[in-house]
Design a protein that fits this description.
single chain; 291 residues; alpha+beta; NADH Oxidase; 2 domains; seven-stranded antiparallel sheet; 11 helices; globular
Amino acid sequence: MPQIQELRSSGISDALHTGREFSDAVARIEAARTNTPQTEDHSEIESRKQWITRGWTHSLDLYLSSLNAEAPTLLADPTQPRVLGGDSHPLDSEIKLVGPSEYRQVTGTLCERRTYRKFKSKAITDQQLSDLLYYGIRDWVLRAFPAIKKNGDFPFFVRLALLRPTSQMKEGVYSYSLDTHGVIALRHGDFVGEVVGVMQGMQTARTASMTFFLCADLPKAMQVYPRSSGLRDLYVAAGRIIQGLIAAASAAGLGCLPTPALSDKPSENLLNLSAPREVAVYSCTVGVLKP
């Protein structure tokens, strides 16, 4: 499928914002459609235009690349170690989080939980943050994805935008390690406005305590999900991980707003992702509930 591969390598991610560039990108999509054996209706092309308009360019890249199931076009060499993107040099040494508290059953809280868009404008405790990361992500990932985590092929990693400081951590953007249960500061500062931009204008971050971002290493993702359904499989897996985080937040008496509706370019800038290899695929904003 050379036309699709040519589209992938033509840098569609970089030509998506102004009128002429938008038209050129759409023209390349339609040209790729015309010259490939798959038959796609007009709604498929309109959907791809909508992806470009909303800034979901890396997801579109992955989708187009995965159409050639026999020889997908890798976005980068998956054998090379992933490095922190952009200017993501750690600001400090790793912060070891406090140990997780005793595990609590969450069946009842899951049945009662709902989505929240406004919170108490208060920070959570260091213990709550540790429990969210340990039970909501680390422990859940090890139980839900034991094989790919053991083999080193796990395609996800976690960034955290701490919107209100705790006694242990300043406001800023952090990288979380599943192996050590620790965080490394990438940026310090107030990034509430940037989080709102990443979440396409949703204002939840203005009263929340933090936003978790589940990010994907796309070359690894294409190896783990090497089919034309790879993009869908990636988001289904991401959704499963976020469900673990929702359960942990519910058990801690916190509210959350999960959403995969994120803008690529703003998230790259906020989270210091290395495009096009890395992309934020899901978020979960957590906060203290109002009485």
